[in-house]
Structures are given as C-alpha cells and as structure tokens.
Design a protein that fits this description.
Length: about 375
C-alpha cells in the first residue's frame, strides 16, 4: 500500500506537497476502508485548479521509469513548476509492502532524466545514486554483488536496472520485498472519464473499448451492468463495415451503441472496460480515477464506490460530488479536502470529534471544515 507521498517543483506544486494516508482515526465503522492504519479507500474534494489531477500525475510519475506500461508522455509536458528556482522535481514515496516500510525518493530534471534515487527497506539502504556527484550506484541486494554499478544513462533507473539484470532469490527477505514492490508499481492504474480512454499504467498501447468487451465475451454482462446502473437497454453484437460492434437492440432494430449513447453511458462503459481488469485477481494494486463521476447522477456515483470497495486494491478518487460524502459509504478519515497548499482528511480538518451519526455533507457545505 502507498502510505505517504510528497512532491515539490512538479507542475502546480512549487513547495513540498504531502499526501499522508496514515493520518487515520480509530473509527468502528467502515473498517475495511482502513487497513493497518492506512487509508485503503480515499475520495478527494477540492475546487477547480487546486491540483487534484496533477496530484494523480505526480503519484504516477513513478511508472514512467520503473515499468514498461503506458505512461502518457504528453501528460508530462511542462514538467517543472514555472515559478520555482529549483532545477529538478523531487518525489518521495512511502509504502507498506509485505509488512515492511519502504521509502523511495528520486529527483528528475524532466520526465525522463533521473538525477538522484534512493531506495530503502526499513532502516536498510538497498540502492542509491547521486549523479550530481558520481554515476556509480550503491547497491545492496543478495544476487546483485557482481552487477556493474556504473550507470551513466540518466534515463535508466537504478531500481529497474537492478531488477532486470540480477537473479534475485526470493528466499532473501529484502529481495522478496523488492520484487513485491515492483509488483505493486506494475499494478498501478490511473484513468479519467473526461478525456476518452486516457490512462496510465497496467497495459501498453491503446485498445478499443467495444472491441475489448466483445473479445472477452462480456457484452451480456455489460448490458446487465448498465441496467443495474439504471440505464435500461438491450445490447447485441452486429457487423458494421466488416467489424463487430456493440449495438442497442430495439425489438430487432439495431443502432450503433456509440452513435446514440449519452456521455454518462459512455463514461460508465469506460468504467466497465476497466472494471473487467480490476476484477482480475492481482491485476490492479492501486487505482486513481480523476473526476470519476463527472457524468454520473448521485446514486450511480455511490454504486461505483460500492463496486470498488468490493475489490482487493487501494483506490483514490477525485470528485466534486458531495452527496457521497457520507459515513454510510466511507468514514471521515477517508474523505480528503485539498487546496493548493495542503491536503488532509475531514477528521483532521475540524476540532469537533466526528461520529458516525454526523452529516458530513451538511457540515462541509456549512463551512465546518478547514479547507
């Protein structure tokens, strides 16, 4: 699990911005949303322009140099903060992997160029390089003793180099945690419903949504999912220009799904496209959906959160929809309020002791929380 993240001099984040998922309370309801004192299910609120999307991009910067999955390089244009005098962006991640604390810190001058990296498990430094001093890396893993530690390529992560060029026996605890860390990173997924099928992580390249659903044999399941969400419809697969497409079936008359579906229905179908992958065991470890319910009505937003809670993964959602700010769904330490300078849970945004019976939405609208 990601337990804490900080970033500075990246896009809209000039000074250090800290997202702490360990700042939890001992509530006795919705206990499944906090695991080992770490928020498993988070929803972020904030006005337009405070940096909610940039926070997601900052967290997912890590996959660009540690994995071969989709990274969306265009999302990382204008990398450094325009107002900062620093020549690099600094990222620091803290994870709880296999009950071990991991700290991974790095600095970049742009999307590709890594100036500094350090990776530790507990109190043990596993790898470090500071290219402002030397291209020689410190490496401390069993099985990597004979590895060339002179890494001149600034685009090459020491960690990725170590993983790809060493035979790491998993009977060593540090090797096991190191490989589990990579499995977590490779299972990270970011997507948004406002921008087509724009995503980061998990897979490589783009894939047609309806083509994918048809190939998986899930058209009937999609129909059931849409009807459950309140969209009454009947779907079938038809041929159009020698291609299989999904169509609405109106008593035998068919019309292409994507020609007449509403924005909300298309957004829900995009969610279903990813839900297929989310349900695959061990596929997704960490999910970030930006503006997850931009086209959904209130009841549907609640349904989506409930669906996500059933899955074994950590997730973060951004939204403006306060109707789902309720203790029936999550709890006060899982709802975060964000401005340009900080982000903190509702439970730490008021002096009042919050209980299960409190109406969080009403309090939020009344200005009871320090935002």
């Amino acid at each position: 699990m990601l337990t804490k993240f900080s970033v500075s001099n990246f896009k809209s984040f000039d000074e250090e911005f800290v997202f702490d998922l360990q700042n939890t309370n001992g509530y006795n309801f919705n206990k499944e949303s906090v695991i080992e004192g770490v928020v498993e299910n988070a929803i972020i609120y904030g006005k337009n322009g405070v940096g909610k999307s940039n926070l997601g991009l900052a967290i997912f910067d890590i996959i660009g140099h540690l994995t071969d999955t989709e990274h969306g390089d265009s999302e990382y244009d204008y990398y450094l903060n325009a107002m900062s005098s620093s020549k690099y962006a600094t990222f620091c991640y803290e994870f709880l992997i296999d009950s071990k604390k991991i700290v991974y810190k790095y600095k970049k001058t742009d999307n590709k160029s890594i100036v500094y990296e350090s990776f530790s498990i507990g109190e043990t430094l596993i790898a470090e390089i500071d290219r402002e001093i030397s291209n020689k890396a410190k490496i401390n893993l069993k099985g990597a003793e004979s590895l060339n530690n002179d890494i001149k390529n600034v685009n090459l992560s020491v960690l990725k180099y170590l993983k790809n060029n060493s035979v790491l026996e998993e009977d060593d605890i540090f090797n096991k945690v190191f490989l589990c860390f990579f499995k977590f990173i490779e299972g990270m997924l970011f997507f948004r419903s406002l921008d087509g099928n724009s995503y980061l992580g998990i897979e490589v390249g783009s894939r047609g949504i309806q083509e994918d659903i048809i190939e998986r044999g899930n058209v009937e399941d999609l129909e059931s999912f849409l009807n459950q969400a309140g969209i009454e419809c009947k779907l079938k697969v038809v041929k159009e220009s020698e291609k299989n497409i999904i169509a609405f079936d109106f008593d035998g008359k068919t019309i292409s799904f994507y020609r007449i579906a509403s924005q909300g229905t298309k957004a829900l179908t995009l969610f279903y496209f990813w839900l297929q992958r989310l349900k695959e065991q061990s596929k997704v470890s960490f999910l970030f959906i930006d503006e997850f319910d931009a086209f959904y009505h209130h009841e549907l937003s609640k349904l989506i959160v409930e669906e996500l809670k059933k899955l074994d993964m950590q997730f973060v959602l951004t939204t403006h929809n306060t109707s789902i700010m309720t203790n029936d769904l999550l709890r006060p330490d899982c709802y975060f309020v964000m401005n340009k300078h900080f982000i903190k849970p509702l439970s730490k945004s008021t002096d009042k002791e919050l209980r299960e019976a409190h109406n969080l939405e009403k309090m939020y609208k009344a200005g009871s929380f320090d935002v």
